[in-house]
Amino acid sequence: MIASSLRSSMEIHRTLGFSLFISLSLFHLSIASSFSPIDHYLIDCGSSKPTTVNIDNRRFTGDSSELGSQFLSSTRTISLTDSNPSPSSSPIYHTARVFTRPSKYLFKIRDKGTHLVRLHFHRIDSSNFDLCDSQFHVSANGYVLLNNFTVMNIQKPRIKDFMIWVDSEELIVTFTPSKESKFAFVNAIEVISAPKDLIADVAMLVNSQKTVTINGLMKNSLETVYRVTVGGPKVTPFNDSLWRTWVPDEEFLKSSDGSKSIYFSGRIRYQMGGASREVGPDNVYNSARVISSSNDVIPHLNISWEFPVVGGYKYLVRMHFCDIASVSLGLLKFNVYVNGNSAYENLDLSAITNWALASPFYADFVVDMESSGVLTVSVGPSKMSMPHTIDAILNGVEIMKMNNSMGSLDGLVCVESILKSWPRRNAGAVVPLIAAVCLLVIASFVMHRRWVGVRDSVAWSPLPMHVSEISLKSGIQRSLAKV
Question: Which terms does the record give in the GO molecular function aspect (predicted)?
């Protein structure tokens, strides 16, 4: 009976047509190696020496050093050092680079494709600048990343995490003060070429009317708004091959009655074609929240998480799954919901992972949030769930904002309008210079007219070319004799 049920499950799965966005070809077990990006720039802004970050032992290059200065293409910038740094804060937050006019960092790109761009912002104590007065825009290769950004009322460091498609030989990150009276700053910048499997080009668009396949996701810019590990503790950059931070899910958990968190101490079985360690680290997949039935009754409940989001954007919702709870294959089947709409029915993890437990994969869904509100993800039992088994599971979730039609991740503004709105600081000196030049031109014109007028008032004709010099002298002498 179980075998028949499993065959039926596999057949249903084939008819769903989700093979375009979920890993199905998991035939070979792979041994994950440490990720070594081709493009890997770590810049400690405002520093003249290298800085090693304690949490993950990464070494940042100071942009005031000989090696680091090659990335900063702008002049007349200001380097700040915290006069009273906190001993517990990362050393990359002890300095900052301040910009009083549009300024750029240029990074040579050898590996075209998706790149991780992380910007670090933190207020520091300085007698010259109060970073609370900063207000600025940040753009990169035609995309607006931040619009009128400020650190006012922000006490802790802010890390803004983006993924940008780069098909040129340079990635240019531009900082533009929003007003002439304001300024921009940054503490550190990371530019890292992403693994090729980090962003899939295909996902499922989910709404109340239908669920359809959409393409072309790779060439969008994305901002990671939430990165959450479900059922487990915080995952730090030290435990993530892409140096990411995953926060616990308790803050976002809406309903968990009848569910429980679990932890798995065994080996996570990464497979070719499935989620890699770069997509999700072991520490995300070895914990989860599950719904389980302890008797013949299947619970009629879902586990739900809520994420406040800004309207006017599409969001890429990535849900991470790894069956670390089932005692046997083919027992776990459940439904997945996004914003209350069905995103996947009768999800059979055994069939998807080529009949392997503890083997991870992820599913990407796109939702259009026309207005600000709450984005909800849920998992729960399906009609094919079985009693005395695990009836739903989720290991992790990521919410990524997609750029709008103007190429912006922060408001209805484009890069061109930001650059055009910047006031020209030299206008005060240029205007008097132009006025002086105009006066000189007018004076020259008047003098020329006067000279022409005097010349035209005297009868004058050109000397005939056939009159000899002797004849001319004789004529002059006769005229004088008559006088």
Answer: ATP binding; protein serine/threonine kinase activity; transmembrane receptor protein tyrosine kinase activity
Beta strands in 178-241 (DSSP E): 184-186, 188-193, 202-206, 211-215, 222-229
pLDDT at 47: 97
**8-state DSSP, 235:** B
**Statement: the pTM of the whole predicted model exceeds 0.85:** no
Are the CB atoms for 319 and 377 separated by under 8 Å? yes
Looking at domain 40-194, does it have CATH number 2.60.120.430?
A: yes
Q: How confident is the model at residue 181 (pLDDT cuts 50, 70, 90)?
A: confident
Domain ranges of the chain: 2-34+197-402, 40-194, 427-482
pLDDT tens for each residue of 325-342: 999 999 999 999 999 999
The CATH architecture to which 2-34+197-402 belongs is Sandwich (2.60)
What is the C-alpha separation between 216 and 31, in angstroms, rounded? 30
Residues 6+ apart with CB under 8 A from 477: none
Which residues, in sequence order, are CB contacts of 115 under 8 Å at separation 6+? 39, 109, 163, 164, 165, 166, 171, 191, 192, 193, 194
Q: Which of 358, 365, 307 is nearest to 336 (CA)?
A: 365
CA torsion through residues 193, 195, 196, 198, sign: negative
E strands in 322-467: 333-338, 341-348, 361-369, 373-381, 390-394, 396-402
The pLDDT of residue 437: 46
> CA 109 to CA 191: how far, in whole Å?
10
